[in-house]
Amino acid sequence: MKLFGPRHPEEVAHRVPPGQRLVKGWPVLHYGPIPPFRPDSWDLRVYGLVENDYRLIYEELKALPNATVDADMHCVTGWTTLDNAWTGVSFRTLAERAGPRPEAMWVIAHCDHGYTSNLSLQAMLDDDVLVAWANRGEELTPEHGYPLRLVVPKRYAWKSAKWLRGLEFSDRNKRGFWEVRGYHVHADPWPEERYSYQEGPGAEGEP
Prior knowledge:
Distance between the termini: 37 Å
Strand content: 25-35%
CATH architecture of the domain at 39-68 and 85-198: Alpha-Beta Complex
Oligomer: single chain
Number of helices: 4
CATH topology of the domain at 39-68 and 85-198: Sulfite Oxidase, Chain A, domain 2
Structural class: alpha+beta
Largest sheet: 6 strands, mixed
Number of strands: 11
CATH class of the domain at 39-68 and 85-198: Alpha Beta
Radius of gyration: 16 Å
């Protein structure tokens, strides 16, 4: 995989959040085993507080209008990679098809092996959020989330959950795997929202 980087050190300084270090490779971090991909049984479910609960098999998902997002990635453990080009389907496309109800305020990402992650619907509706199957023009490898991962560039990378299988719209915050273990609900890397003790009022309700 070819890695791209900015030409000017000044640009690097403006793109690396506090407490982060730039790395040239792409570290592999995840909890649990890598799940096998079985095309004949795989699907993505979009459900919860929506008008249209639906499922997509892999071919149906990839047939939707595709999007490419150029974005950096910041891991809560301290590394940052620059100039990722993600290819997939915009979260907005999936949400528009589902039709979230007015009371839907949160989105819970459900992945293989029961892993979950959560973000406010407001954060998920950013125009750079997508579900992706490729990075820098190449299909994701299994250790990086193939066949599908969530990509939320403005949040720490644990919110970009690997091996995505469902998106649940909810009226309340349901803390995910790392969130119940002390990590921040919103996970914005620029103010270093790493841990739950940093959360202000409203973390369990309004986004």
